[in-house]
Amino acid sequence: MYPGTTGTRPATELSTSDRPRLARHVRLSFCRTRQRPILQLPETVVVLNRSGADILELCDGRHTVAEIVAGLGARYQTVPGDEVRRFLTRLVARHWVELADG
């Protein structure tokens, strides 16, 4: 667990049953100037592409990774589940996304 948090754990490899959510210090937003979705972090802004934003919109701690992949599949024809897991794994490693205990 991260210091000062409960119900979260770090991950070296995401499972389809993990329930990702944005960390408390991270906010998904839309930048009007750039006309792009962004992640706002302390002293940092990360510009996202649409698919990255779509993944993170579903990271609410209720949806499993499998449900996120299925939800994206309803929007797009092909959704490589392994790419979604790699994307989320990188964000978990940076402490931008946490995994809620099921």
Descriptive overview:
By secondary structure, the chain is α+β, with helices and mostly antiparallel strands. The protein has a single domain (8-94), classed as Outer Surface Protein A, domain 3 (Alpha-Beta Complex). The protein has 3 helices and 6 strands; from the N terminus they run βββββαααβ. A hairpin with a 2-residue loop joins strand 4 and strand 5. This is Pyrroloquinoline quinone biosynthesis protein PqqD. One of its GO terms (molecular function) is quinone binding. Pfam families: PqqD. Pathway: Cofactor biosynthesis; pyrroloquinoline quinone biosynthesis.
Q: Fraction of residues in helices?
A: 25-40%
Q: How many DSSP helices? A: 3
- Mean pLDDT score, rounded? 86
Shape: globular
Distance between the termini: 14 Å
Report the uncertain regions. 1-7
**CATH T-level fold name:** Outer Surface Protein A, domain 3
Please tell me the CATH architecture by its name. Answer: Alpha-Beta Complex
Mind describing the biggest β-sheet?
3 strands, antiparallel
Please tally the β strands and state the result. Answer: 6
Strand order of the largest sheet: 1-6-2
Please give a quick description of this structure.
The chain is α+β, with helices and mostly antiparallel strands. It has three helices and six strands; from the N terminus they run βββββαααβ. The chain has a single domain, classed as Outer Surface Protein A, domain 3, CATH 3.90.930.
